[in-house]
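Q: How would the structure tokens look for this protein?
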Amino acid sequence: MGSTLIKFYSRCGDIEDAHKVFEEIIHKDIVVYTSIIAAYSQISGNRCYEAFTIVDQMQKKQLDPNRVTLVSLLQAATQLKSLKEGRSIHGFAIRKGMSDLDEIFETTLIDMYGKCGAPKTAASAFGNKKMRSVLCWNALISGYLQNGQHFDALDLFRVMLQEHIFPDLITVASGISGCANLKCLLEGKSIHGYVIRGGIYLDLVATTALIDMYCKCNKLVQARQLFDAMRTKDIISSNVMMAGYLRNGFASEALEIFSKISKAGIGPTQATILSLLAALSNLKDFNQGKELHGYVLRNGFESKTDIENQIIDMYAKCGCLEISRNVFNRVKHKDLVSYTTMMMGYVSHGHADDAIALYLSMHGKINPDSVTLTCLLQATSQLGCLSLAKEIHSHIYRVFMETDIVITNCLITTYAKCGKLSMARDLFDKMIRQCRESWNAIIAAYGMHGNISEALKLFDEMKEERINPDETTFTSILSACSHSGLVDEGIRAFISMTEEYSITPCEDHYNCVVDLLSRVGRIEEAYDFVKRFPSSQSVSALNALLSGCRIHRFAEIGEVTGRMLLDLKPEASSSYASLCNLYAGGGKWNQAIEIRTMGEEIGFKRTPGYSLIEALS
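A: Here is the predicted structure in token form.
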């Protein structure tokens, strides 16, 4: 009766009353002890360790654990991730001759070793078994997966099928998870085909694993077909589908999923809210972001700092810095992410002084990490403040972050933008290991200082070190060639980018080449070049071409270019100003007045230029 009551309270999640019943039993036998040990082995957290305390009491009463007791103790060791305790139980079972011929014990033992980070020992225990049931295979495969050994897990799944062991839904889900993590589409589709041929009905867990596999292999159409075909959808499957869309840059589709599950009455979890906020941040959709913020407030999610941080980021990316700061000010438990997110918002919108002020308010309360210091250095770069850059550099040495490669790369850029090219080069030369981003930073540094010969020399050295250049490298090289008028070198770099490194040119690359040709008066070539690439990527290039037409007096091409600009971006005041100047330079005053009038009608205003200098005290 006593052991039955213990089990009842345990299954109801009331461990306190279960323990009271245990204490009130005067004559405790092996069944009673095993019942309370089993109860403690099922609860999470450190209280699970009580199972081992009770087994010590039991042994002092001259009662040895039986197989059921040992299984419960193994479960407790698994919960605690305590390999030491698990090995002790295994050793006890071997000494007592209880380690063989019991499938449940052996399966639990394999599961314990796998989840405690010892998959090789789990495999050894598995290898000693004469009869291997699907449960044992599942435990071993799951152990490899949890330890990040996805290839071994997938290989075990293959061996299992070769030995004609029919997998259950847990095995199928594990095999699919291994394919998802390795992005092995062919193997994943093979398992899917096996399931279809075998007439296996996939449950919610296995179907969700299959959706995740297709998402991670960038096969969103197949993933969505599976998701739509599900009779019952839960929040986990919905989160997986939304995460797949977000990972592949389809934020609108992620929002569509959320709308559908909301109408179906499936309540979002914290993970769902975070995914949605990330989607709205990418879309810069202020109105839907504000609606979701309202939902967060109405449903009590505002107390979650992670969600508040994502809301700060969402408003900042939508350009609403004041609202973003108001949300930041209301966060009760601000962490490092809160401060860093707000700082990044300020930096991305050119409010470097506000970012630095926010960092100073954090200083002494929370220790910055490399991301925070990188953001602070970017703010310093915007201001061109050398003294502050040196202060940050000194702090980096004091907190032993000088070997952090990301921070060093950012320091190189900061010193270059503050006019200290020699200090940037010194940092680069003293780096223990130079990654591609390090080379990009120093090449860009020489390029912005007009030292194109050194930039090209570094570019050659980078290739000699067998570090392949990327889009950023070529943007720096092309920009440097453009500003130095080195047409042949720039064209060679552009051809090399596409033919030698198979890099698809982006808007920045096109702009640099057009600017390069326009600056030296090769307007016809620049115009032919503009016509070859997509119009959506031509606004900045057309501006450069129009400027070249004005300087080199190519009125006809300039007029065509100007009209193209007005069609592509009628709201840009610079387009009206450039075309107006072209007409005025050619003495076409009526057309110049017409363009100026058109600009004034849409609210065209000249933005005054400004410069920053660092005042010496």
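The longest helix spans residues 67-80.

The mean pLDDT is 86.

Upvote if useful.
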